[in-house]
Amino acid sequence: MTRWLSPTEEAAWRAYIEGSLRLNARIDDDLQASQGMTMFEYHVLLLLSEAPEGRLRMRELADRMVFSPSRLTYQVARMAREGVISRQPCDDDRRGSYAIITPKGRRTLGRAALAHVTSVREHLLHLLDSADIQDLGRIFTRVRSHLEPPGDGPPPGGRPSGAGAAPRRPRGK
Which one of 67, 115, 158, 163 is CB 3.0 to 4.6 Å from 34, fit for a cystine? Predict the structure, then answer.
């Protein structure tokens, strides 16, 4: 039998949903206004910049982005036309391919990183004290671990992934 949310649980849930939607939309708007890129494009470049050799298999990238493979294929094709990433077939699997960040992609990411971190600080971090930030990290690490497909571990270095990843200086910058 389903147990309904208590008033306190419902208030917390609604605050999370509405706050996270507004936060993601604001960061996306800020990146588009200042850099002409979406938060999803930023995160694709960030994940690739952190990957060994600047590349990930498309399937792994789709999993890390929580995208369907077809949505990622479309996104990657668009970004490849812009020259910020490229695709390369997998030598060991003719059906698979890699997404690879290009030098132009690294430069683009480097320029966008400052706008991204500024937006994250302005719209989230400056509202929290250090204990709140630690709580937020602890809570969403637990949620992410619960929701990861079986067999997936944390990304290299144990850093968070997903559109809400903690902003940090991209590699190669």
Answer: 115
Give me 112's structure tokens: 């966008």
Q: Where do we find the tokens 């590699």?
A: 171
Percent of residues, the chain, with pLDDT higher than 70: 87
The residue segments making up the domain with residue 103 are 36-149+161-173
Specify if 10 maps to a domain.
Answer: no
% of the chain at pLDDT higher than 90: 70
Query: What number of CA atoms fall less than 13 Å from residue 26's CA on the CB side?
Result: 14
Q: What are the distances in angstroms from CA 140 to CA 28, 93, 147?
A: 20, 34, 10
Domain at 51, CATH number: 1.10.10.10
Report DSSP letters for 99-123, one per residue: EEE-HHHHHHHHHHHHHHHHHHHHH
Residue 22 is which amino acid? R
How many domains does the chain contain in total? 1
Q: Quick one: which of 142, 136, 104 has its CA closest to 120? A: 136
Q: How far apart are CA 142 and CA 129, in angstroms?
A: 20
CA angle 44, 81, 86 (to 5 degrees): 55
The sheet carrying 55-57 orders its strands as: 55-57, 97-101, 85-89
